[in-house]
């Protein structure tokens, strides 16, 4: 068994190592889905563009993206299952089977728990909630509780759906007072014909009646309970409790209804494998509305192998239709695991059953399930589920040994199956990309004849020249503005400074924002606490210094306006008019950004030009960067200590009486100091009124140089002309294949998808 | 001979509420200090001057004690006022010197120019024409603290620069006709405490102040020189009238109107003890003028140019001026006293027993470091 332990530990370790790559793949497919969506959008835009020829339009219209999206979603779902499988820190064995076959007894034997945790019993079904039991040194149970919404969706709504009732009540109060049909005759005609309708309705009404016994648990939280207190949370009421309820008229308590999941930790008596978990899967054939879907979800996410328990009781010592349904469901959950017998073990519970029935069932399984060949489709184990030692020897050990050997193979099969699925989707994506490439007719200038090429070059050079002239005039204008102390921009700056200054004064007049009374109250309270005024004064001066600076940084609004005006003027008056339709629909800074992007992403990239625009757009004017360093000295006087002119020693600036009158006096003196500092700051800022204009002039001058006079400028203007010819000069080169920004957008989107596929 | 003390008329040209009363008070205070230990004294020579100066002194004292100095709150001039100060030794009043300083509202300048207005305004106009000294009082904080373009544009209107140039031009023409009489223009910035480091201030912006004054009054100086080249002395004389205050902030209003307003606020610095600086330079300037023209008079007399002197006296409107000056010095002056005064003015001041000796000593004392001579008044 130690060998099995070592192998299983190694398997779990290997699984965890693969998690980062699986997560990367999931992210990659998510990203690919988004990029395909962008590509679809670009294709649609191109298809509708007026310069796109008819054949291209038709070809593009035949592309189908939706099936690819679905395939990607399936791939992501498979990867997520793989991630769930590989994320488990334990080997999980599921125990399934119809009610009353001895599942709970098997679980007790493996785990060492008893009826208080894993209730068993004859007669009524017992287990209400799926438990996961892990071998551990601890002995406790962690309940995951429903909140009302999850209870409504997971528990109530399936019952409502099964009875063709309206949507389950939205609130707890509505559920408590909901008027359910008194009997099946109040159901729809169709439902009245179904035999399951009556018990389903009864159970629904039992849930409602028992609400007071579990509603306090509908918190959505986790709750840790001791193992001795677990039963009521995992088991249906006993027969005695049901009888008592019937006689007293008080409904049997059903706290299990509030429980979504139970995770039990306890030391297994015969584990021999540390990382072992047993998952109790609710039995098929229970009268729960969506038991099958619930079962499948648990199988896919949580278990490495299933032990399907069968008990040859009277009248049930054969492999029936329901048993076949169970294995079919298990096949669905098997997924990419190729051999059924790798994933499912059939376990015949021999406890308390006579040998004849055991023999009968054994034989039926051999014939009906394994086609007469032992272990052909499923391995079959036999054990008395009530005997822990027998369970260990005849069920657990064979299963663990099997897993130790076969789990790596099963993991590889799941991994390979997921990879194959992903590959299929990759091929489909490649197909679409190929179709797009075939549909696009690129407007290469090599298709132009020589006179058309010469014409294009002339247009490009002319464009550059016209821009040079316009920018030169603009720079002359900016130069003038930067050296004169008048004009609307200059005045706007002064007004912004004055506005900030007025705001500071209003703040000072209002007791530094607190209100005069409150400020004095705070001061007096601090005097009382500190037994001096220096501490409060020092703190306040620091605060004042910071706040004055903050108020003046409000002139940033003016700078934003100035920069917006610059972008608007450059883009809308100088640049856009010379670029035809290229920047249509954009203005100001957005137009410049678009131009920058188009230059960088052109089929023949114009990096120099793009960078010139980018650097222009990176221009920043703000108080903190450009102005505060020059004016900060104006605030230097806001210190709580001053130098004694006679002795040269530091002394406290303010000396006031430690009473309300002293607080008022302190406020007056601080206000006087603050006003002086604010005025000095204002004055210093007024002296810097030329700075914004100087900065703007310098930036535009630099932009002009980089755009027009850089070494590659002429070359890049001609590249741009080739790439965006029909946008810049619409109609001028009619008859030649379109070279438009829309086509480039599709090409770039294809590049992005290819890049992600290759990653 | 005039048996009254000699009169020396000084016309103060400035907007209202600029601090003319403060300046007069500062002259009085500073000169008192200069004369401490001598038998000579300077004091208000009439009750109304005394009352005005005392009222101002009380207001200032109270403000400084409470460390809340509001220059605008000090009472300003809404009517004209003639300050009369006497500089003499006890028992020798008729040998003393009376300084008459005229303060009138700045808004009266247009009326004075055109001899329009009330009787009082016409009397002011006459005073200005007769004045030997024009004292152009300028608010230094106005000039130094104007930072926005609108504030800078408003300075000329607040200081009545154009009207001042006109009245100075008229006065200069008058002086030109009376070339034998002293004529002095003092450009006197007040509220200078924040721009000098020699009287408790921490920053020296004196050169910047001078440059800005020059930009404003340069044209006025040119006008004077053009009308009377070299005869009229022009001095630049910044004064601290309080000493223990520092500019804090200012309120500007109505900047886009014809009557913009500027109201500075100051805070008290240091111990709050008043410390005037530069005000006694005004008396020095007056003394130098007196001595200069006394020497001229004597020279002309010595050159036997009585006829010229007599003619000058006839044409002089202020006929009593020469008699006044003669009253200080008598027919002759002490050469020995003059020599002593030239060698050590401070000792001469302390030893002066008569007004004549004092004026002689003061005339030889050097101006304070703040004073700049824009034009010396000596023909080249």
Detailed description of the structure:
The complex is a heterodimer of chains A (759) and B (380). With 759 residues, chain A is of the alpha/beta class. Among the domains of chain A are: 135-267, no CATH class; 449-736. Helices cover 61% and strands 8% of the residues of chain A. Chain A contains 29 helices and eleven strands. Chain A has a nine-stranded mixed beta sheet with strand order 4-3-5-2-6-1-7-8-9, sandwiched between helices. In chain A, strands 10-11 form a two-stranded antiparallel ribbon. The longest helix of chain A has 52 residues, at 388-439. Chain A is extended, with a radius of gyration of 40 Å. The two termini of chain A are 43 Å apart. Chain B is of the alpha/beta class and 380 residues long. The model of chain B has no long low-confidence stretch (mean pLDDT 81). In chain B, 47% of the residues lie in helices and 17% in strands. In chain B, helix 1 (20-35) packs across helix 2, helix 1 (20-35) crosses helix 9 (280-302) and helix 9 packs across helix 14 (355-364). Chain B has an eight-stranded mixed beta sheet, sandwiched between helices. In chain B, strands 8-9 form a two-stranded antiparallel sheet. The interface between A and B is medium-sized, with 21 and 16 residues.
Distance between the termini of chain A: 43 Å
Low-confidence stretches of chain A: 441-446
Largest sheet of chain A: 9 strands, mixed
Strand content of chain A: 5-15%
How many domain units of chain B?
Answer: 2
Return Rg of chain B in Å.
Answer: 20 Å
Alpha-beta content class of chain A:
alpha/beta
Rg of chain A, Å, rounded: 40 Å
Fraction in helix of chain B:
40-55%
- Which architecture of the largest domain in chain B per CATH? 3-Layer(aba) Sandwich
Oligomer: heterodimer
InterPro entries (chain B): P-loop_NTPase
Protein name (chain A): Dynamin family protein
Organism (chain A): Gluconobacter vitians
């Amino acid at each position: 068994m130690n060998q099995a332990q070592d192998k299983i530990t190694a398997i779990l370790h290997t699984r965890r190592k693969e998690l980062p790559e699986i997560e990367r793949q999931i992210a990659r497919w998510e990203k690919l889905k988004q990029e395909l969506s962008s590509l679809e959008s670009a294709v649609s835009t191109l298809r509708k563009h007026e310069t796109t020829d008819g054949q291209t339009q038709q070809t593009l219209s035949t592309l189908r993206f939706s099936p690819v999206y679905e395939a990607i979603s399936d791939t992501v779902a498979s990867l997520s299952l793989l991630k769930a499988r590989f994320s488990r820190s334990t080997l999980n064995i599921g125990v399934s089977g119809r009610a009353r076959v001895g599942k709970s007894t098997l679980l007790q034997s493996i785990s060492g728990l008893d009826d208080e945790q894993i209730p068993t019993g004859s007669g009524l079904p017992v287990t209400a909630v799926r438990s996961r039991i892990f071998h551990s040194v601890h002995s406790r149970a962690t309940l995951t509780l429903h909140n009302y919404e999850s209870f409504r969706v997971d528990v109530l709504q399936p019952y409502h759906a099964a009875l063709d009732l309206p949507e389950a009540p939205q609130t707890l109060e509505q559920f408590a007072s909901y008027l359910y049909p008194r009997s099946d005759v109040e159901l729809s005609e169709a439902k009245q014909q179904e035999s399951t309708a009556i018990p389903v309705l009864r159970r629904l009404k039992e849930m409602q009646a028992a609400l007071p016994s579990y509603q306090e648990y509908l918190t959505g939280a986790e709750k840790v309970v001791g193992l001795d207190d677990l039963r009521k949370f995992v088991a249906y009421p006993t027969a005695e409790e049901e009888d008592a309820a019937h006689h007293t008229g008080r409904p049997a308590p059903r706290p299990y209804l509030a429980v979504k999941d139970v995770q039990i930790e306890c030391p297994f008596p015969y584990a021999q494998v540390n990382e072992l978990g047993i998952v109790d899967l609710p039995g098929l054939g229970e009268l729960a509305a969506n038991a099958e879907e619930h079962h499948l979800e648990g199988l896919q996410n949580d278990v490495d192998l299933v032990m399907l328990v069968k008990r040859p009781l009277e009248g049930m010592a054969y492999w029936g239709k329901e048993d076949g349904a169970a294995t079919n469901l298990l096949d669905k959950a098997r997924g990419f695991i190729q051999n059924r017998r790798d994933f499912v073990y059939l376990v015949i519970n021999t406890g308390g059953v006579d040998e004849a029935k055991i023999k009968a069932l054994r034989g039926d399984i051999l014939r009906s399930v394994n086609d007469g060949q032992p272990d052909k489709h499923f391995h079959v184990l036999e054990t008395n589920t009530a005997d822990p030692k027998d369970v260990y020897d005849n069920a657990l050990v064979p299963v663990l040994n099997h897993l130790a050997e076969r789990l790596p193979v099963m993991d590889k099969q799941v991994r390979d199956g997921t990879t194959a699925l992903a590959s299929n989707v990759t091929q489909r994506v490649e197909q679409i990309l190929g179709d797009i490439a075939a549909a696009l007719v690129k407007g290469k200038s090599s298709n132009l004849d020589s006179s058309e090429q010469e014409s294009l070059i002339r247009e490009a050079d002319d464009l550059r020249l016209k821009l040079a002239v316009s920018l030169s005039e603009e720079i002359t204008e900016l130069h003038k503005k930067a050296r004169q102390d008048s004009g609307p921009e200059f005045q706007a700056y002064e007004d912004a400074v004055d506005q900030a200054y007025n705001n500071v004064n209003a703040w000072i007049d209002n007791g530094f924002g607190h209100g005069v009374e409150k400020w004095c109250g705070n001061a007096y309270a601090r005097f009382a606490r500190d037994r001096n005024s220096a501490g409060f004064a020092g703190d306040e001066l620091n605060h004042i210094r910071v706040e004055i600076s903050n108020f003046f940084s409000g002139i940033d609004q003016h700078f934003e306006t100035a920069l917006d005006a610059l972008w608007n003027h450059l883009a809308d008056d100088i640049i856009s008019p010379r670029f035809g339709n290229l920047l249509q629909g954009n203005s100001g800074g957005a137009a410049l950004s678009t131009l920058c992007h188009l230059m960088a992403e052109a089929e023949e990239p114009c990096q120099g030009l793009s960078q010139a625009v980018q650097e222009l757009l990176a221009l920043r004017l703000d108080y903190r960067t450009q102005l505060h360093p020059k004016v900060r000295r104006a605030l230097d006087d806001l210190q709580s200590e001053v130098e004694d002119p006679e002795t040269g020693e530091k002394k406290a600036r303010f000396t006031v009486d430690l009473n309300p009158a002293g607080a008022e006096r302190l406020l007056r003196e601080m206000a006087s100091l603050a006003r002086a500092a604010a005025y000095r700051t204002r004055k210093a800022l007024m002296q810097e009124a030329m700075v914004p204009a100087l900065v703007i002039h310098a930036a535009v001058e630099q932009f002009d140089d980089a755009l027009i006079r850089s070494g590659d400028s002429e070359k890049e203007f001609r590249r741009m002309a080739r790439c965006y010819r029909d946008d810049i000069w619409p109609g001028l080169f009619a008859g030649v294949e379109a070279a438009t920004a829309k086509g480039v957008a599709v090409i770039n989107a294809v590049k992005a998808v290819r890049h992600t596929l290759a990653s | 001979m005039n048996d009254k003390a000699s009169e020396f008329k000084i016309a103060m040209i400035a907007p209202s509420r600029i601090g003319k009363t403060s300046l007069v008070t500062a002259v009085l205070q500073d000169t008192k200090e200069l004369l401490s230990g001598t038998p000579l004294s300077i004091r208000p020579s009439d009750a109304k001057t005394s009352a005005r100066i005392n009222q101002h002194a009380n207001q200032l004292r109270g403000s400084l004690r409470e460390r809340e100095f509001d220059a605008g709150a000090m009472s300003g001039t809404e009517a004209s006022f003639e300050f009369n100060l006497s500089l003499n030794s006890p028992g020798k009043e008729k040998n003393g010197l009376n300084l008459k300083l005229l303060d009138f509202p700045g808004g009266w300048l247009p009326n004075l120019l055109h001899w329009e207005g009330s009787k009082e305004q016409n009397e002011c106009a006459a005073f200005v024409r007769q004045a030997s000294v024009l004292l152009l009082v300028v608010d230094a904080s106005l000039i130094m603290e104007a930072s926005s373009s609108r504030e800078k544009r408003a300075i000329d209107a607040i200081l009545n620069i154009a009207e001042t140039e006109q009245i100075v031009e008229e006065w200069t023409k008058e002086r030109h006709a009376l070339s034998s009489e002293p004529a002095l223009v003092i450009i006197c910035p007040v509220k200078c405490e924040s721009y000098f480091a020699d009287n408790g201030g921490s920053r020296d912006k004196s050169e910047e102040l001078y440059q800005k004054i020059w930009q404003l009054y340069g044209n006025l100086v040119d006008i004077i020189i053009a009308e009377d080249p070299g005869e009229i002395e022009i001095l630049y004389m910044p004064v601290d009238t309080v000493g223990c205050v520092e500019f804090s902030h200012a309120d500007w209003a109505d900047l886009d109107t014809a009557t913009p307003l500027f109201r500075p606020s100051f805070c008290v610095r240091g111990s709050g003890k008043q410390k005037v600086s530069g005000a006694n330079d005004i008396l020095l300037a007056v003394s130098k003028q007196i001595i200069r023209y006394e020497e001229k008079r004597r020279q002309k007399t010595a050159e036997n140019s009585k006829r010229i002197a007599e003619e000058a006296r006839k044409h002089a409107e202020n006929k009593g001026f020469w008699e006044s000056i003669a009253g200080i010095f008598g027919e002759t002056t002490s050469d020995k006293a003059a020599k002593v005064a030239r060698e050590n003015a401070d000792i001469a001041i302390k030893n002066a027993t008569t007004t004549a000796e004092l004026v002689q000593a003061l005339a030889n004392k050097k101006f304070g470091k703040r004073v700049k001579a824009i034009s010396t008044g000596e023909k080249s």
